[in-house]
Amino acid sequence: MTSRETKIRLDLNNPVFQDNLLTLQKPERHAALDTLNKIRQLTWNQLYRDQGLKWEKITSVKPPQGINAIYSLRLTQARRATAYRDGDFIRLLTIAPDHDATYGRK
């Protein structure tokens, strides 16, 4: 299987992401889990093209050392998550409390 056909693997181990996810209200938490399940079934090319997820590079935030770029994607109707690609893995970092917070703006 080529890397283009490889399904995305989820890394949900970031403690900040876990705290953000587990403290969402139940309907929003369920919507987020549905989105994560959807992402697991996609290839990277499908993720990049998916209009509902809106994978976007965040240019207003400097990525940590060793990470090329941080991206945002729509996790629920109201919330976006930050993540980066590491090989086949999407490493999820945070769930922003609101849309602007994703991009480092207030």
Structure, explained:
The protein has 106 residues and is α+β, with helices and mostly antiparallel strands. The protein has a single domain (9-98), classed as RelE-like (YaeB-like fold). The protein has helices at residues 15-22, 26-40, 44-49, 99-102, and strands at residues 9-11, 56-57, 71-74, 80-86, 89-95. It has a five-stranded mixed beta sheet. The longest helix is centred in the N-terminal third of the chain and has 15 residues, at 26-40. The chain is globular.
Tell me the overall shape.
globular
CATH class: Alpha Beta
Whole-angstrom Rg: 13 Å
The figure for the number of domains is 1
Spatial strand sequence of the major β-sheet: 1-5-4-3-2
Percentage of residues in DSSP E strands: 15-25%
H/E order of the elements? EHHHEEEEH
Classification by helices and strands: alpha+beta
Tally of strands = 5
Query: What does the main sheet amount to?
Result: 5 strands, mixed
Helix content: 25-40%
Per the CATH scheme, the topology name is YaeB-like fold
Low-pLDDT windows of residues = none
Q: What number is the mean pLDDT?
A: 90
- Corresponding CATH superfamily: RelE-like
CATH architecture: 2-Layer Sandwich
- What distance separates the N and C termini? 43 Å
Tally of separate helices: 4
Summarize the structure.
This protein is an alpha+beta fold. Helix content is about 30%, strand content about 20%.
Layout of helices and strands:
Blueprint: E1 9-11, H1 15-22, H2 26-40, H3 44-49, E2 56-57, E3 71-74, E4 80-86, E5 89-95, H4 99-102
